[in-house]
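User: Here's a structure from my thesis project, written as structure tokens. My advisor, Dr. K., wants to see whether a designed sequence matches the one we expressed. Can you design one independently, without my sequence as a hint?
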């Protein structure tokens, strides 16, 4: 999975689609990625099932595709929130957050937390055991 979302531009593309940008030109302008790189990332994210496409047509032009998050794409939003949260804590003095994630219901800031399947909340410094599945 890191080979996909760890590629330069991939998470930025997912973030921009989650913020409502859907069309190639919008994504190109927002990310600053070259057309070739952006095309490659969109293709790879679509093939992996993170993004889906749907057709649209502007009057007088050919049919095109716009990009939407799939369930797998929505499942990446906690990762984006966690990265934003990390940046606020560790880079806050030197940089301003590009995006702040908020709860649609109350407007409060959303933060990422580690939760065990047993329901226990874990602190980042608690011992975590990584299991490598190969």
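Assistant: Designed independently from the structure alone:
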């Amino acid at each position: 999975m890191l080979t996909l979302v760890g590629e330069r531009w991939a998470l930025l593309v997912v973030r921009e689609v989650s913020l409502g940008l859907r069309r190639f030109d919008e994504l190109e302008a927002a990310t600053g990625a070259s057309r070739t790189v952006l095309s490659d990332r969109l293709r790879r994210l679509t093939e992996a099932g993170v993004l889906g496409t749907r057709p649209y047509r502007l009057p007088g032009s050919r049919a095109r595709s716009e990009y939407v998050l799939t369930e797998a794409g929505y499942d990446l939003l906690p990762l984006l929130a966690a990265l934003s949260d990390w940046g606020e804590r560790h880079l806050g003095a030197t940089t301003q957050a590009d995006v702040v994630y908020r709860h649609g219901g109350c407007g409060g800031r959303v933060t990422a937390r580690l939760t065990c399947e047993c329901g226990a909340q874990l602190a980042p410094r608690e011992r975590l055991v990584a299991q490598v599945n190969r």
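When you compare it with your expressed construct, this may help: The domain at 1-134 is CATH 1.10.10.10 (Arc Repressor Mutant, subunit A).
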